[in-house]
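Support request, please re-run this one:
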Amino acid sequence: MNLPSRPEADLPSERGAETGRRIGVGLMYGLWKPRVIGAWRMPATGPVILAVNHSHNIDGPMVMGVAPRPVHFLIKKEAFVGPLGPFLTGIGQLKVDRTAADRTAITQALGVLGAGGVLGIFPEGTRGEGDFASLRAGLAYFAVRGRAPIVPVAVLGSAERRGRLVGALPPLRSRVDVVFGEPFLAGDGGRRTRAALDQATEHIQKQLTAHLENARRLTGR
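Re-run finished. Output below.
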């Protein structure tokens, strides 16, 4: 897919994403007890994709708050309602229409990687069991097209139900583990054929599943 170049002004704000990271630090450490493992594995510079499992609404903010670099997440457009819409845009997050090929979101996401930034993706596409069992091809496309390493991230404990005071949130002051894995490349030589992307998606799924299993052993979750 050939996409037109977009002016730099259309890219999500790096400064906004840093503000979002600081807000995330305050909220996540104030409300819960994040235990971060392996954050040093995340490359300090250059384009990176964080592939995060997704079982609860706080998974994105949690990763934003504990990641060592500002993160621009692709977030479903349904979340951009009311005052939350301008807020999410202001902190550098990307609105994506999951029902179609959203060219604006694709261009902005590639722009983040092209500028050497960090793109956050929930490769399962929506909140579910958080086990990476069903991956969409978008992650492979961004990794191959953006020539960016993927860092798998497992968020464990956010879906805990026991002891909740607020039904939609994990128990306050409970421990949430965030485990960063080793960076890996999705494919070879930037090939973007359907077959190459299918192969890359299969490779990614194996890597993410292996990381999640290792994270569960490591944390006892």
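The beta strands are 33-37, 48-52, 72-76, 94-96, 118-121, 150-156, 175-180. The helical segments are 14-31, 59-66, 84-90, 103-114, 138-145, 194-219.
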